[in-house]
Amino acid sequence: MYKILKKTVLNESIRIIEIEAVDIAKNASAGQFIIIRTGENHERLPFTIFDKTNNSISILYQIVGSGTKLLDQLNENDYILDVAGPLGNPTDIKNIKKAIVVGGGVGCGVAFPLVKALYENQINVTAITGFRNKDFVILEDLFKEYTNNLYITTDDGSYKRKGLVTDVLNDLLEKNQYDIVYAIGPLIMMKYVCQVTKRYNIPTIVSLNPIMIDGTGMCGGCRVSVDGKMKFACVDGPDFDGHLVDFDLAISRNKSYLDFEKHKYEETCNLFKGDKHE
């Protein structure tokens, strides 16, 4: 059992919880994740390790489905049944002097621990974060604290610069030299970030978060195609060379899972309405 030490509400659907987990905190690095189970017969939920102290780890989550709704019912001093980790490979930040980290939406929660690790290792780090509108902007103060430069974009221009993260990225790469770009967020965003960086021949690492169940490579749900070879995001990643990832296949597979979940949800609703199914 793992005790919830603190719960912070960022907005109506996004939370941060701090969990007492000494061994995981001792061994975790930026880029790694955990898998939790809130109770018996509950689904396994993967989350990037958002931050850590000597005896605890934090995760950021968005309430989007039944699993996260169950998680959100827990509060400070409640307990999570299982927390497994750290899983996955740490993000490689060796031999880097100047980096850009691009985060999109809730993906900024995954981008933050990387930004913090870069900054604390005396690496010059510029962050570009993108959101739908002002109401969805999160973690601005933390990004300011751990970056040399921060650019925020909103799709509708309701806060900071109007436009996409790729607009800012293109402007920066035209005028400055960087060692690497990291992109973390929706698949379509990472795809277009990689298209921009490829024009400038800038190495680009993306963090992939496909459907994941066991976190050990056994279920095969998180397989992705990288340089024409099948990889498992949970054990081979979650970081990959973005210029080698087959994003179209990843987007297609992700859509298939979402369509299936939507179908099952609608089917369940119909059953409760009394509809007949063969």
Account of the protein in words:
The chain is an alpha/beta fold and 278 residues long. The protein folds into three domains: 2-87, Beta Barrel (Elongation Factor Tu (Ef-tu), domain 3); 98-207, Nucleotide-binding domain of ferredoxin-NADP reductase (FNR) module (Rossmann fold, 3-Layer(aba) Sandwich), CATH 3.40.50.80; 209-237 and 244-278, no CATH class. Helix content is 31%, strand content 30%. The chain contains eight helices and 17 strands. The protein has helices at residues 22-27, 66-72, 108-120, 140-145, 165-175, 187-199, 233-236, 247-272; strands at residues 2-9, 14-20, 33-37, 45-48, 51-52, 56-62, 79-80, 82-87, 98-104, 124-131, 149-154, 161-162, 180-184, 204-207, 223-226, 229-232, 239-241. Strands 12-11-10-9-13-14-17 form a seven-stranded mixed β-sheet, with helices on both faces. A hairpin with a 3-residue loop joins strand 5 and strand 6 (56-62). Helix 5 packs parallel to helix 6 and helix 6 runs antiparallel to helix 8 (247-272). The longest helix has 26 residues, at 247-272. It is globular, with a radius of gyration of 19 Å. The protein starts with a strand and ends in a 6-residue tail after the last helix. The model is unreliable at 259-278 (pLDDT under 50).
Supply the key terms.
3 domains; 31% helix; alpha/beta; Elongation Factor Tu (Ef-tu), domain 3; 278 residues; disordered C terminus; Rossmann fold
What is the CATH H-level superfamily of the largest domain?
Answer: Nucleotide-binding domain of ferredoxin-NADP reductase (FNR) module
Q: Give the count of structural domains.
A: 3
How many beta strands in the DSSP annotation?
17
Order of helices and strands: EEHEEEEHEEEHEHEEHEHEEEHEH
CATH class of the largest domain: Alpha Beta
The profile of the biggest β sheet is: 7 strands, mixed
Which overall shape is indicated by the principal axes computed on the Cα atoms? globular
| Helix coverage percent | 25-40%
| Alpha-carbon Rg, integer | 19 Å
Mean pLDDT: 90
Question: What structural class do helix, strand and pairing data support?
Answer: alpha/beta
CATH architecture of the largest domain: 3-Layer(aba) Sandwich
Number of helices: 8
